[in-house]
Specification:
The chain has one helix and eight strands, in the order E-E-H-E-E-E-E-E-E.
Length: 129
C-alpha cells in the first residue's frame, strides 16, 4: 500500500476539480442534492477528490470539518475517538469533525468523492468594555 503524506492536495494522484458533478443513478444520495445540502449547512462548494487504489493515509487530522459523498470505489475510515472502522461506498456520506483524528484506506479501485469543507467556528469575541 502506498502511504499518503500530509501534503494532501499537492500529492501526485490527488485530483481536485471544481466543476459540478452529475447525479449518480440509483444512489441513496445524488451529487446535486448533496451539494445543495452542503450549501444549506454552510460548507464551502464541494471539490472532487480521487485517491489511488490500495493506498492509505495514516493517522491525521484536518483543520476543517469535512462532509463527503462517495461517487465510486470505497474508503475505510478509522476514527481514533472510538476506534471504529467504517467502510463507505458509492452513495454513502461520511462526516468528520474539525481536527478529528482518523486514518483512511482506499479500496482496490481507489475512491472518488465530493467533499465540502467548513472552517471551525471562531470563538466569540467578548464585548468591548
Amino acid at each position: 500500500m502506498a502511504q499518503i503524506g500530509k501534503a494532501d492536495a499537492a500529492r501526485p494522484g490527488a485530483v481536485i476539480a471544481f466543476a459540478p458533478t452529475p447525479s449518480l443513478p440509483d444512489s441513496p444520495m445524488d451529487a446535486i442534492t448533496f451539494q445543495s445540502q452542503l450549501a444549506q449547512e454552510g460548507f464551502e462548494p464541494a471539490v472532487r477528490v480521487e485517491r489511488e487504489a490500495d493506498s492509505l493515509w495514516d493517522d491525521h487530522t484536518h483543520p476543517f470539518e469535512a462532509k463527503a459523498l462517495i461517487l465510486s470505489g470505497e474508503i475505510r475510515i478509522r476514527t481514533m475517538a472510538d476506534g471504529a472502522d467504517r467502510t463507505y461506498r458509492a452513495g454513502d456520506v461520511f462526516h468528520l469533525a474539525h481536527e478529528e483524528p482518523h486514518a483512511e484506506w482506499y479500496g482496490p479501485e481507489g475512491v472518488v468523492y465530493l467533499v465540502g469543507r467548513r472552517s471551525a467556528p471562531r470563538p466569540a469575541t467578548p464585548p468591548a468594555a
